[in-house]
Task: structure prediction
Amino acid sequence: MLNNAFLDIHPEVKAALNEGRPVVALESTIISHGMPYPDNVTTALQVENTIREHGATPATIAIIGGRLKVGLSEQEIEHLGKSGLAVTKTSRRDLPVIMARKLDGATTVATTMIIAAMAGVKVFATGGIGGVHRGAETTFDISADLQELSKTDVAVVCAGCKSILDIGLTLEYLETQGVPVLGYGVKTMPAFYTRDSNFQVDHQIDSHEDIAVIMQTKWQTGMQGGMIIANPIPEEHSMPKDVIDKAIGQALQELDEQGVKGKESTPFLLSRVKELTGGDSLKSNIALIMNNAKLASAIAVAYSQK
Result:
């Protein structure tokens, strides 16, 4: 654990870290930007409870009044949920500004990894990572999440990259950056709302114990960077591919027509996909997050015993 003057670690999380017990990091953009209130707060608290039920301590990460928070109170989660889009979506480039101005910030995958690593948390559960946006060959719209994965020693459990993105180009970029993409029990990359895609993961790994060994081996050798554990959405919550593809296609067209760009792209697309699927995508989103929290907890428990 690093001594950082800007870092506040919740007592429950600090005790777990000091005692070598398993901790799972959680992001906060999903609270402020990913879901409407009160679904966002309810889901955030359910995810934390799921992690506790599976033997680990949850550490939801955010920036409150310029302070880097590792572990939030229920009141802080409620504050982020109610404030919603008024909370700044904070990636690596935004961190010093949000901290210096003592503002509130919701952490993306990239900033959650940065702050988790500062505290010594090695496992992080999220919904889906950012990636290479469709059309990036002309827009150069590539999420900072991917570079962070190449430099920060945190394992990220996700349901693949968000299906609004270009999965093939995202995997190519991760390969270039040397980031292992491990499929939990699968050979193909999950596509967030659906269980598979036409793209292969680097390696299929069938047990959380083996994932913990791979994490330990990578970092013991001094190799920097994280890894992705791609965990497919449970079968019963997977959406029909044609339904989700149609909704994404329409949302992308509207994105272009309305000129939405940059960090606002993903929240806009996810919101429209939810509307176009009659809310089914939100139900799937919640289910896959819970599923990832369970796997992340199992991995964190196994890693803490190494």
User: Anything to note?
Assistant: The mean pLDDT is 93.
